[in-house]
Amino acid sequence: MAAAACEYAGFGWPSFPGAHVGGDRACSCDRIGCPDPGAHPVSAAWAHQASVDPGVIEGWWSKRPQANVILPTGRVFDVFDVPAAAGAIALDRIEREDIPVGPVASFGDERHLFFVATRGAPADEDEWWSCHLDTLPEDVAETPGMRWHCRDSYVVAPPSVLPHGREVGWLRPPGGALPDPLRLLGVLADACEDA
In what residue span(s) does the DNA primase/polymerase bifunctional N-terminal domain sit (predicted)? Predict the structure, then answer.
């Protein structure tokens, strides 16, 4: 996990330790009946503490070697999070039409995470394009279709391990420029309707 977090730091992607599965409970956190086992940061301060410093990263994972990897969104990249069936439809169309696509991860074979250039936090808030897709990872039950992780959100990154032997893995690993979110948004919205 530490090696993966350091690799992400090399791309300029901050990371933070996440909870992990195992032990006598479904999640390593202190919450009884955790609603998102192994898929959340270990501290509420994750947004402020996430780092690209290899020394900091190595220190975190030396204390928590099983910690999953959390990547904050809305800084270097945003993430479109769609059901796996819609993600597969979108990837087929992307390949057929030669549409630019960046990294894509599979979250336990249930959802696909499409990494895109961030909309960021513009100096002029009037430039911010807010939408109902902006979401927190815990909202999946209320928002089962497409979700847009941007400012103040995060995703669980490969090679994180989820309950019941599920994993987060790369379908298309990182490398190269991130695509414009608006072009990919249209493809993913169509795919969600078709799935």
Answer: 5-184
As a whole number of angstroms, the distance between CA 92 and CA 118 comes to 24
Rounded CA-CA distance 141/89 in Å is 22
Tens-digit pLDDT profile for residues 97-112: 999 999 999 999 999 9
Distance CA 161, CA 158 (A): 8
Report the distance separating Cα 182 and Cα 175, nearest Å: 20
Q: What are phi and psi of 9, to 5 degrees?
A: -60, -35
When pLDDT is cut at 50, 70 and 90, the band that residue 128 belongs to is very low
Residues present in the chain in total: 195
Cα separations (Å) of 34 from 69, 110, 121? 18, 19, 31
Task: Work out the number of other CB atoms within 10 angstroms of the CB of residue 66.
Answer: 16
Looking up tokens 């103040």 gives 152
Q: Cis ω on the peptide bond leading into residue 173 (within 30° of 0)?
A: no
State whether residue 69 is helix, strand or coil: strand
Report the C-alpha gap between 147 and 116 in whole angstroms. Answer: 13
Residue 19 CA to residue 138 CA, distance in Å, equals 14
Which helix (DSSP H) or strand (DSSP E) does residue 148 occupy? strand 147-149
**Pairing relationship of beta strands 154-157 and 68-72 according to DSSP bridges:** antiparallel
- Are 28 and 38 in contact by the 8 Å Cβ rule? The answer is yes
